[in-house]
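User: Predict Secreted frizzled-related protein 5-like's structure from this.
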Amino acid sequence: MAVFFAVTFLALACPLLAFDMGQSTRCVTIPNQMKVCKDIGYSEMRLPNFLGHSNLEGEVVPRSEDWRPLLQTGCHPQAQAFLCSLIAPVCLDTFIQPCRSLCLTVRQSCAPVLACQGHPWPEALDCDRFPAEEDMCLSPHAKFSHFAKGLPKPACQHCPSVEEAPAMKTVLDAFCHHHFAVTAKLHRLRISTGEPEFVIEGRVEFIRQGPLLPYDTRHLLQQWLLINRACASGLVRPGRSQLYVLTGSVQPDGKLALTRVFPWHRKDTNIALATRKWKHHRC
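Assistant:
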């Protein structure tokens, strides 16, 4: 089981603690090491927070880091605001919780990412626990109400087949039968603790562009690695970079799925020949 989700769900498996709005609270500066809630528009937070954590160094900061891998997927542009309103509530004269509508909006986009790892949306983040829109609460921002409609999103999927030293015809057939084909160098960072980090090194080069957008494709593939972390772990060894030819399709629901993966080693002349022949190839 992934370290991140094991820790997170141990922390959030129980329902929200009964938070007494009349209890004594204190305001503290959000520490620099609390990266998850950096640049959220305010510098002081209340303790205890809405998850019942009162120890800044022992609970709040380390448990906030549990959410970093989810936020890195970009599952929703207001996911950080939602989570930080609970982890690091703003220090004002009144308590400001997230509105139920904000929770529902974030859950719709981010719950599938958790489900991809085999976990449901945590009970502690049950949207029915939060106040309705007419109460004083943090509501969804209007500019995010139509979050990236029309752009492909990475699918949670079974891992694509990885084919070593393919024949030229195999590669050309993959180009023909899928919507897009790109080359990308994947790198796995060495992390001493926690989940491994996967990044796309350098540019993503198109062989067949299909429905992908040049300015969005690198970010889209990066999100795919973060969501399909188990697949990414099987592709790249720690501390190593590997160039791949990635082919796939955009499904009817707008989700991008990788279908066939070809590691491109220097000795793989068939892949080089296929990419050169593709410009004049008839499927």
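The longest strand covers residues 197-208.
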